[in-house]
Design brief:
The chain is an alpha+beta fold and about 80 residues long. It has one helix at about 50-60, and strands spanning about 5-10, 15-25, 30, 35-40, 45, 65-70, 75-80. The protein is about 15% helix and about 45% strand. The chain is elongated and about 45 Å long.
């Protein structure tokens, strides 16, 4: 029976959560609702949140098969394209 590996990443700026969900045995994963950091004052974006997810995926030896957006995000930008 597969064992799920789930890690959630809370973004305090947008008050949203990105999830990494994986089959721990197969080492295959999905990332759900990845957040792209955006500073409206400067107009600049960064990948701080996405970098934390990528670090977890690498440390766990996972392969990301899916990037899933569950809904339109009016409160933050998606990091799926990064």
């Amino acid at each position: 029976m597969p064992h799920a590996l789930i890690r959630s990443f809370f973004d305090t700026v947008t008050f949203t959560v990105t999830h990494a969900v994986a089959d721990a045995q197969a080492k295959r994963a999905a990332v759900i609702d990845p957040v792209l950091d955006y500073d409206p004052k400067s107009g600049c974006s960064s990948t701080r949140n996405a970098d934390a997810v990528i670090a977890f995926v690498r440390e766990a030896g996972l392969t990301i098969d899916w990037l899933l957006e569950t809904h339109a995000h009016a409160d933050h930008l998606s990091a799926a394209g990064t």
